[in-house]
């Protein structure tokens, strides 16, 4: 029986490692360059820390890639170009369980706000648990963590005039 438990644990670990290696974050919609980024690709982008008070009332420290940097890489309208009609553009964040979160691009753009929205892959310097990761959107400074969603799989940029 002990051998079966050991084999099962090894199988689960192997499956988890494979799933992370196969993972691709999709960036689509109103972008100059649609992307599919692996976890390895994300490690090559700038990293930031963000504090978030979870539902448990505790403040946790997350580390990950600023969403702004990912959108820049995809050629999204940001910075000086984010004015006029472009201010109606938004980011729809899709999660593996079907949960979706909406943010305006101005909420992410560092020329509009000092808040750093990140796509985290670690909490307290440890990888996110499988049920929360491999990526979590962290929107600091909000009274409720409802937009700080788990298991992010896709970022879709849209245009409010559609």
From TrEMBL:
Oxidoreductase molybdopterin-binding domain boundaries: 19-141
Regions annotated as coiled coil: none
Alphabetical list of Gene3D superfamilies matching this protein: Oxidoreductase, molybdopterin-binding domain
InterPro entries: OxRdtase_Mopterin-bd_dom, OxRdtase_Mopterin-bd_sf
This protein's name: Oxidoreductase molybdopterin-binding domain-containing protein
Species of provenance: Sphingobacterium ginsenosidimutans
């Amino acid at each position: 029986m002990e051998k079966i438990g050991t084999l099962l644990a090894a199988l689960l670990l192997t499956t988890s490692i494979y799933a992370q290696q196969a993972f691709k974050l999709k960036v689509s919609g109103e972008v100059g360059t649609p992307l599919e980024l692996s976890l390895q690709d994300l490690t090559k982008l700038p990293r930031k820390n963000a504090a978030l008070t979870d539902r448990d009332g505790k403040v946790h420290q997350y580390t990950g890639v600023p969403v702004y940097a990912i959108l820049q890489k995809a050629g999204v309208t940001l910075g000086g170009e984010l004015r006029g009609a472009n201010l109606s553009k938004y980011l729809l964040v899709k999660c593996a369980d079907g949960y979706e979160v909406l943010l305006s691009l101005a909420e992410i753009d560092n020329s509009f706000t000092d808040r750093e929205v990140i796509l985290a892959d670690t909490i307290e310097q440890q990888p996110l648990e499988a049920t929360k990761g491999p990526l979590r959107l962290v929107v600091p400074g909000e009274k409720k963590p409802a937009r700080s969603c788990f298991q992010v799989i896709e970022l879709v940029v849209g245009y409010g005039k559609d």
